[in-house]
Each structure stands twice: as structure tokens, then as C-alpha cells.
Amino acid sequence: MVLGMPLSYFAITIHAYMSPSPRTRSGLDPKQSGTEPVKLLSGGNPQIPKGDGDAPVQAYIAAMPGWKRAVGEHLDALIERHVPKLRKAVKWNSPFYGVEGQGWFLSTHCFTQFVRLTWFQGQALKPMPPGPSKDPHARYLDIREHGIEDEQLLIGWITQAAALPGWVSHAQQDASISATNPKVEWFFAKEGKWKACFTALRELALQSGLTEELKWGHPCYTLNGKNVFLMHGFNEYCALLFHKGALLKDDHGILIQQTGNVQSARQIRFTSEQQIAKLAPVLRATIRQAIAVEQGGKQMVLKTTAEVVMPAEFARALKQMPELKKAFQALTPGRQRGYLLFFGGAKQSATREARIAKHVDRILAGKGLQD
């Protein structure tokens, strides 16, 4: 990988805690190693054939010149210590570190004066690594020779980065891209306030490998027929709605409960394309988490119908219309809860009454709120 010089950066340095023995420009002394010397490319970067696993990474580290070898060993040990299910490889003469099934989160590369760490989702780390990148998601950290300023900060970045979905090659991305559904195209083609935002969200959604469907007039992304999330828009915002959002970890504080009556679903709200782009790594991680929840068969413990408060306006309607009461009692408990939560979610009495009046015919027909 070609890694360019950042426009500006703040260097965190790691002390060479080992004093390496004198080496030739080609890395290890060939007289000691008994092997052909490793060629060092521009900036002193070892030329190592690409390969998966620990062996090519250790070959790269062993060939790092001077104090940089100690940096490589120290960094490699920190990553092994703090990242479970670690995978390694050498690509483009650079060690890559990743998590099984999640892509790569970090690569390293030797330059003349420093060792550069590329955090592929660096924009999502807190605090962000200091070096800017032309890639809108990545950040750089340049490690120099004279000691470490904050190893705990470095460990924090390692653990954060490993928890995010990582970088994958275009070939891997293409293999996991969801197919677009022709039935949904009209939603993205129609003009409206959130058209550009919906297009950006669809790009993220299709990267998930989920099935794109149309449900309740909105794009919905499913796993084996089970709803994982959908997207919808309102006057003040558009959103991704995660159907089991209450079961997701929310380290960034972005999951929103629409009303107090909503039990399982949670929204992530947006008001601009820029906001979506900035949150993209976090959104991918949230989608992966939602998929894992569905794959694991986790279920919300929902309130029973008896535990849901019946709005006074609906209780009055049932008393005035015996046929409505009979039809409502014939509905499944889930459909009953849906109506009660929907009616009770309105803040104003007039709004609750309007919702009830609008749905009387559906209840009489034995239909649920979403049928």
C-alpha cells in the first residue's frame, strides 16, 4: 500500500527498549542469519513477499532497520495481548492486523524517520489519531525513536479499532454486497428533502450482505426473513430504525427511543450527508452488531398486553362500541399491544382520538397496525 506523507501530524513515539545489534542496510546481518539479506526499499521499508499469518509479519519485523525493529516488536506484542481472534498478513510490503471476519484495522510501514501506523477507521477513534489522510475514514500515527508519551492511549486505539468493522479489499467487498431490489427503487428515486441521505444510507446498507426488501413502504434489510433495520424519513430528520435496537451496545450515544412506549426498536437520526459520512464506521459497526444479535437469536422481553396502559380515549371507544371491543379482544396479544402503544404514543388527547378513529375499521376487520 502506498502511504503518503500527511499534511500535518503529531508524533507519538515509542522507546527502543531493546538495543538491536549492528545491522547492514539490508536488515539483519546475513553472517548471523545465514540467509540472504532482506532488501530495504525507499525509506528503509523491508521488502517481504505477501502472505497470510504470523510468519511473514515476523520476517518483516526482523528486517526492520535499527531502532524500528524494537518498535515493530513492541507494537506486535501489544496487539497480540489486546486483540482476540487476531489475524495477520503482509500486503504491499506492510504488516496488516485484523480480526477474523471483520477485515483489517491497522497496517504499519517504515519511513526514514518514523514508523507509520495507518488506522483504517481512524476517524471513528476517540480521540482521533493525529495524522490526517486523503482517505476520509483513515488516520495516521507516526512513531519515532525517542520514547513513548502515552502507551495507554495507543492500547486504547488498538482495542477501539479492533472492535470496528475493518478495511477489506474490493474483491472481498464485492462478494458481500447485497443485491438491489427493483421494488425499492422508487423510494430512492423520488424527490424529497432526504433523497441524498437515503442514497448514502442505502450504500452502507448494501455493504451488509442483508436482503433488501420493501416493507410498510420503506426499504427494509432482513436476515433469513427477519427484520434487522429499515430506513424512514420525517420532517426534521431521516433515520435508520433497528428492530432490536434496545439489545445493541451504544458506546457513542446515538441510538434513540422514539417514545417511551417503544420497547424494542431504536433509531439513529440524521440531518445531512456529512453527518452520515462522519458516522459511517460507527454505522457499519452498529449494523454488524444488529446482524450478530439476529444470528444469535436474541429476543427482547416485551411487556404483556396487561402491562401496557390503555389510553382513556380508547377505553371510552370500546365502551361505546361493543363490536369494537369484541374485535379488539379477538386480536392476537401482539396486535393488541401494537395498537395500545401507537394510540398511547400521541402526546395530545385530540391526536389519540384521531388515531383511534382512523383505525377502527382495521380493528373491526381483524387486522393489526402493520397488516
Please provide a written account of the structure.
The chain is of the alpha+beta class. The chain contains 12 helices and 11 strands. It has helices spanning 30-33, 54-63, 68-82, 151-163, 170-176, 185-189, 195-206, 273-295, 312-320, 322-330, 333-344, 349-364, and strands spanning 51-52, 86-91, 94-99, 103-110, 115-119, 139-143, 211-215, 218-223, 226-233, 238-242, 266-270. The strands form 2 sheets. The chain has a 6-stranded antiparallel sheet with strand order 1-2-3-4-5-6, with helices on one face. The protein has a 5-stranded antiparallel sheet with strand order 7-8-9-10-11, covered by helices on one side.
How would the blueprint of this fold be written?
Blueprint: H1 30-33, E1 51-52, H2 54-63, H3 68-82, E2 86-91, E3 94-99, E4 103-110, E5 115-119, E6 139-143, H4 151-163, H5 170-176, H6 185-189, H7 195-206, E7 211-215, E8 218-223, E9 226-233, E10 238-242, E11 266-270, H8 273-295, H9 312-320, H10 322-330, H11 333-344, H12 349-364
Antiparallel strand pairs: 1-2, 2-3, 3-4, 4-5, 5-6, 7-8, 8-9, 9-10, 10-11
Strand content: 15-25%
Evaluate the radius of gyration: 27 Å
Low-confidence stretches: 1-34
Q: What is the ordering of alpha helices and beta strands?
A: HEHHEEEEEHHHHEEEEEHHHHH
Largest sheet: 6 strands, antiparallel
Q: Work out the number of β strands.
A: 11
Report how far apart the termini are.
52 Å
Helices and strands: which structural class?
alpha+beta
**Overall shape:** elongated
